[in-house]
Amino acid sequence: MPGARSGSEEPRHHESGPGPEVRTGTPLSALTVANVRDLGGIPLVHAGADRVVAPGLLLRSGALDRFDPAGDTGITGLGIRTVVDLRTDEERGAAPDVLPRGAGLVTADVLGAARRSAPARLGSLLADPAAAGRELGGGRVEEVFAAAYREMVLSPGACAAYRTLVEAAADERRRPLLFHCSAGKDRTGWGATVVLLLLGADRATARAAHLAVNPAVRAAFAPYVSAFTARGGDPRIAAAVTEVLPGYLAAALDAVDTEWGGFDRYVTRGLGLDRRTVDRLRTALVAPAP
């Protein structure tokens, strides 16, 4: 299978959303890795006028278990120094990453003991259409994924994993850095949201960036979805499993606000990040717009 400055709280309501042409990162072509995106160019309205994420330093993707170092110049040409793997021990054991030459591996298991969480078993959810209908039909699939997103915000293990991701991204010796899970949409998507909000993106931009992966994941999962529906599977279940829906990220952001008291408190109390780390991240990754 395949933020705002500290103390400047991300507003919960009446945000000025980005225009229809907002940059949501750059999809990159790779032969053996799905859903590769450069976060560079995403606007950071809370970081100052005409500020964006610096290009070429922070990348996201699906898993690297099928990466071909000899033939996939789309990845080898990125100069990646660090790969952060957000998958479970079980996932890594079944499909270990193939690393770009010279890159180090950092493991940051988001789900931990919740290894049966929906984001960790996308393939098995599509393997049996009848079982999927019983488990996920009647709108339950959206509830299952929304609950998983809330856990990515609230569980101590997930907080530790995302702290590891941010600390690695803030370390100049580890960049360019690529982070991923299995499909590069759920665990990776929340990681990207955390980094974007830390750097100064508004929530509307972070939402747009989160949803922008859907064309890539649709393409990656197309054979599985076709097989699922051909055997009588509900296409609405398949879409909710293989794509990211607006309600998923909304559930995570709601948990940030209601359970942590806002993004700043999530960063300091949940993730346990100090000001020095956040400042290093911003210094390196906030750049003037071209």
UniProtKB/TrEMBL annotation:
<protein>
    <submittedName>
        <fullName>Phosphatase</fullName>
    </submittedName>
</protein>
<dbReference type="InterPro" id="IPR029021">
    <property type="entry name" value="Prot-tyrosine_phosphatase-like"/>
</dbReference>
<dbReference type="InterPro" id="IPR026893">
    <property type="entry name" value="Tyr/Ser_Pase_IphP-type"/>
</dbReference>
<feature type="region of interest" description="Disordered">
    <location>
        <begin position="1"/>
        <end position="26"/>
    </location>
</feature>
<dbReference type="InterPro" id="IPR016130">
    <property type="entry name" value="Tyr_Pase_AS"/>
</dbReference>
<dbReference type="Pfam" id="PF13350">
    <property type="entry name" value="Y_phosphatase3"/>
</dbReference>
<dbReference type="GO" id="GO:0004721">
    <property type="term" value="F:phosphoprotein phosphatase activity"/>
</dbReference>
<feature type="compositionally biased region" description="Basic and acidic residues">
    <location>
        <begin position="7"/>
        <end position="16"/>
    </location>
</feature>
